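Retry 2 of 3 after timeout on previous attempt. Resubmitting structure tokens to design endpoint.
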């Protein structure tokens, strides 16, 4: 049991020496993990970064592939690609004198993704993993009225749930409210968090204040990514960054959200932390995607599962 003045997430990582912070859902998800990763680096931990990637990894040279389905991305990787969040992050890290390799996993099913994680764990003797979701759909157990876009997130959860020899496996969800535009009921998100608390898997929440070193660096990294990828900036991290700056309401920062009303608010800057095995145990369809090798299999298995059940209706947060 930890004391109130300590943070349960970082307390769980206190004895870890080689920590992997990894994005669960593709795109710019790893950016949502930067505040935690940087804080661990500043504590003297050896931190490695990875991301389930939406980038065109197939065009990388053979020497970039550390193992099947595991690529090492550096600031010089694939200069011809305009959309490459992992390389954009590597360039920002290099400019700020941090280790500048970001590992990338292509979109696969559970089995090859787990094998790639195993290679990375063995390569760096990883003794703790923090899986980060920019958003809250990683917290959906499967019977909610809307799941958002859970395929990549829960493939990552399933892949890591079986790595029992890694002493600490944790989940961090950042960006509360942003998935409302993907059909997620955040009343049900809160209900799920309460259930995870009862199960002993919820580790509490903490904010990303802009007055901290890590908060300021996160804002700088997101701004750099928006400059480098002006046509496809991250809506999730842009919203989180706006919340960290103290913005509120319909804060428009990209043409991608034109016609949508945003609700940027202080809860978006909260990091909700969980025990990964505990979270995995509550997912109702994780066993159905266990033997998948392709992402399209994950999509079809979830769709089949959804056809068989009565979903929980959305819950309105009183106001």
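Retry 2 succeeded. Sequence:
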């Amino acid at each position: 049991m930890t004391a109130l003045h300590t943070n349960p997430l970082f307390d769980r990582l206190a004895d870890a020496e080689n920590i992997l912070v990894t994005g669960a859902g593709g795109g710019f998800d790893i950016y949502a993990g930067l505040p935690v990763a940087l804080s661990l680096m500043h504590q003297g931990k050896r931190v490695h970064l990875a991301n389930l990637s939406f980038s065109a990894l197939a065009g990388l040279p053979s020497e970039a592939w550390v193992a099947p389905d595991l690529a090492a991305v550096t600031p010089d990787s694939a200069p011809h690609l305009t959309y490459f969040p992992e390389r954009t992050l590597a360039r920002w890290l290099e400019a700020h004198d941090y280790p500048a390799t970001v590992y990338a996993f292509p979109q696969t099913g559970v089995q090859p993704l787990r094998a790639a994680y195993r290679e990375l764990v063995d390569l760096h003797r990883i003794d703790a993993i923090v899986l980060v979701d920019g958003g809250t759909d990683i917290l959906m157990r499967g019977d909610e009225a809307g799941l958002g876009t859970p395929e990549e997130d829960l493939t990552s959860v399933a892949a890591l749930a079986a790595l029992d020899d890694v002493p600490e496996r944790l989940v961090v969800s950042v960006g509360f409210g942003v998935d409302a535009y993907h059909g997620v009921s955040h009343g049900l998100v809160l209900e799920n968090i309460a259930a995870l608390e009862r199960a002993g898997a919820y580790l509490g929440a903490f904010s990303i204040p802009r007055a901290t070193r890590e908060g300021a660096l996160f804002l700088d990294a997101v701004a750099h990514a928006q400059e480098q990828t002006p046509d496809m900036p991250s809506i999730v991290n842009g919203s989180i960054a706006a919340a960290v700056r103290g913005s509120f309401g319909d804060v428009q920062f990209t043409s991608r959200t034109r016609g949508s009303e945003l609700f940027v608010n202080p809860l978006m800057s909260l990091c909700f932390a969980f025990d990964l095995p505990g979270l995995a145990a509550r997912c109702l369809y994780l066993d159905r995607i266990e033997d998948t090798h392709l992402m399209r299999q994950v999509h079809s298995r979830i769709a089949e599962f959804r056809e068989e059940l009565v979903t929980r209706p959305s819950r309105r947060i009183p106001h």
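Attempt log closed. The chain has a mean pLDDT of 94.
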